[in-house]
Give the backbone structure.
Amino acid sequence: MNITKENIDELNAVVKVEIAAADYQDKVSEILKDYRKKADIPGFRKGQVPMGMVEKQYGKSVMIDEVNKLLQDSLNKFLTEEKIDILGNPLPKMQDDFNWDAGDYAFEFELGLAPVIEIDLKAKNKINQYKIVADDKLIEEEVEKIRKQFGKLVSKSEVEEGVTLTGTFVNEEKEINKKSTIEFASIKGKTNQKKFLGSKVGDVLILKSKGLFDDDHKLMGALGLSHDDIHGLDIALTFTIEEINVTELAEMNQELFDKVFGKDVVKTEEELKAKIKEEIEKQFQAQADQQIINDVNEYLVENTKFELPAEFLKKWIVVSGEKPLTPEQAAEEYEKSEKGLRFQLIQDKIFKDNNLQITFEELKEYTKGFVVAQMAQYGQLNPEEKQLDEIVQRVLTNEEEVKRLQDQLMGQKLLDFYKANVSFKVKEVNYEEFVKEVYK
């Protein structure tokens, strides 16, 4: 057997694999002898079928199978040993005059070679690193939410601004009969609000579903319908008022502080606001970190220049899917996927050059942390080590879950690498400003 590679250019090559009869004949003979032992043909005792008959019946198909196996194994071994980095898979070149009766064969494969990539991470002051701060307005809103959450309901005699109403929505045609609790503040428009203001328990209001709430999702919850059902819904409704309540805000005292953060963790209003600010900014940090990854990835794709074996990849796309594509469809698919391919090559280069790998022990510890956080959400704050190990072991037998956790851990490693190696421009913003800039 002889294997050679000819470079067409920096991104394309052809590998030629020459297979002689001597390379596969012994294996074919061995398989045919085994066939003869097992052959059950009328007129012959088992194991006594003439070899000529076995060869005539099975010889060619066995030979073709063995040549193909040898071809695939030798090609893969050659690419690995020669450390040839390819994109896609080798594509066999068609031979119009190919003859399986020849005995000696030559096969040629087109290769799309991975490009040489040079990555520059020193994008000084071109990429923002957002520091999202909780401003006074947001903190005050959060304080009010907490006071409302731990406040008490006080019954009101009639509807006024700021109340919460409980009642039943009815529409016989759509078979709607749903008891719901709604906030007066969520009712849209002065015309609708006037229908509610001054109403008392037992009153029946005649309403229209269209434009009733400031958000269609609130209509969906109030009527107990699906998203598809409320799309464009314009029907008459009755709403029978059963309760009218207003929430009396909890007092700002030690009892409230202890309910929110635990006994004596917070002792003053200033400490409460500082703690709230800390908690909110922790949540913001996750969004800011994700934006770092998004922005650096985008910068690298836009600014890391290299060529791809485009024509080879289009040909490979034609045959690589579940269903063959036309050349036109493949070209369209290539255009859609080119940016993603460039990003993947850049990311692989970063991982390889900087040894960003995940060991099993790292994955196990990360999974343990994930499980502990999940259990804490359900009030299990101090699980036993044995119980924890058993849960981690079960999680790591789930392939989909392992893939998800690996992706998360690799994302964290990539984030840490970016933070350590990219020169950012630190930009302090409140959450509203962050949303405006990032989700323009």
In short: The longest strand covers residues 236-248. The mean pLDDT is 92.
